[in-house]
């Protein structure tokens, strides 16, 4: 029985952990071939080892990728066309927590790092995927990860929230530009999803906090995001473009204030920048006063 993505070729960034990894596994199960881009060599190797166990190694490739570097993103897209003969979808998913702490303490380089990984990378993925998809002349799908944090204040640190809002609006703008080519451009806005990026090694504490704010009787998983990505990558979404698809268990409907604004807010007691699951150490310091 053919899967919903049978014979399609996809590029997935941040595909070696969390939501990206879950999407890689789901796309392969649905019949796609996948090129994985990730900065973390160790988790990339572990992901490829698991794919080999699943018997899908001939439909997968991994490249160490810094998504903020144009040459890396261009090479990633070229790998899909070179190894599997075409491109049908790119999922710009790679992300980090980025700059945290009060705005008065945020350093320019921390702000720039956050926007480079979360917004510049999406621009680069869109740019280079669009070139290939336009040349092929058969349409396609561009998906990016935004966040409920980009829908209003209270869903995340200020830099992260601003960056994710930028992803959502970039998606809307580019969708109109590429519609005539039948290239769909959509974003997925996750809520509280239990991934290494979210809990940062403190899963029980993070999940206890999240359970209090998520109306649905369980927290989200990478598989929930993967299911939406499959829909947006498949022909079933042929008339869906320019959308920011919220997958959050009702968090935005209830009104997010994930972290609070008082002196005990966990994102205001620390400052610095986080690197998520990239394998690069985070640089976090206490806020004085």
**Major sheet size, sense and barrel closure:** 7 strands, parallel
Q: Per the principal axes of the C-alpha atoms, what is the gross shape?
A: globular
Gap between N and C termini: 62 Å
List low-confidence stretches: none
Alpha carbon gyration radius: 18 Å
Helix percentage range: 40-55%
Task: Report the portion of residues in β strands.
Answer: 15-25%
CATH topology: Rossmann fold
Please provide the ordered H/E string of secondary-structure elements: EHEHEHEEHEHEHHHEHEE
Query: What's the helix count?
Result: 9
In CATH, the homologous superfamily goes by the name: NAD(P)-binding Rossmann-like Domain
In the CATH hierarchy, the architecture is 3-Layer(aba) Sandwich
Task: Name the structural class.
Answer: alpha/beta
Query: Number of DSSP strands?
Result: 10
Question: Could you characterize the architecture of this molecule?
Answer:
Helix content is 41%, strand content 17%. By secondary structure, the chain is α/β, with parallel strands linked by helices. The protein has a single domain (9-276), classed as 3-Layer(aba) Sandwich (Rossmann fold). The strands form two sheets. Strands 3-2-1-4-6-7-8 form a seven-stranded parallel β-sheet, with helices on both faces. A three-stranded antiparallel β-sheet has the order 5-9-10. Helix 1 (18-29) links the parallel strand 1 (9-13) and strand 2 (33-38). The longest helix is centred in the middle third of the chain and has 29 residues, at 108-136. It is globular, with a radius of gyration of 18 Å. The termini are far apart.
């Amino acid at each position: 029985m053919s899967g919903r993505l049978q014979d399609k070729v996809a590029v997935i960034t941040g595909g070696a952990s969390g939501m990206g990894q879950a999407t890689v596994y789901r796309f392969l199960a649905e019949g796609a071939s996948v090129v994985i881009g990730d900065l973390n060599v160790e988790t990339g190797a572990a992901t490829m080892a698991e794919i080999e166990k699943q018997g899908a190694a001939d439909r997968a490739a991994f490249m160490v990728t810094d998504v903020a570097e144009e040459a890396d993103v261009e090479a990633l897209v070229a790998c899909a066309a070179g190894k599997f003969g075409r491109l049908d979808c790119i999922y710009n998913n790679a992300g980090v927590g980025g700059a945290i702490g009060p705005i008065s303490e945020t350093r320019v380089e921390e702000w720039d790092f956050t926007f480079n990984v979360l917004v510049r990378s999406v621009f680069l993925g869109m740019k280079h995927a669009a070139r290939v998809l336009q040349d092929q002349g058969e349409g396609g799908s561009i998906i990016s990860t935004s966040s409920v944090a980009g829908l209003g204040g209270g869903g995340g640190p200020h830099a992260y929230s601003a960056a994710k809002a930028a992803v959502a609006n970039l998606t809307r703008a580019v969708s109109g530009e590429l519609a005539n080519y039948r290239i769909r451009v959509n974003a997925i806005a996750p809520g509280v999803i239990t991934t290494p990026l979210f809990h940062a090694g403190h899963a029980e504490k993070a999940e206890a906090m999240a359970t209090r704010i998520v109306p649905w009787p369980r927290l989200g998983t990478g598989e929930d995001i993967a299911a939406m990505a499959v829909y947006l990558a498949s022909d079933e979404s042929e008339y869906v473009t320019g959308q920011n698809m919220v997958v959050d268990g009702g968090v935005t409907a209830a009104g997010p204030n994930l972290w609070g604004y008082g002196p005990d807010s966990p994102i205001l007691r620390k400052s610095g920048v986080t690197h998520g699951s990239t394998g690069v150490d985070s640089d976090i310091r206490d806020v004085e006063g």
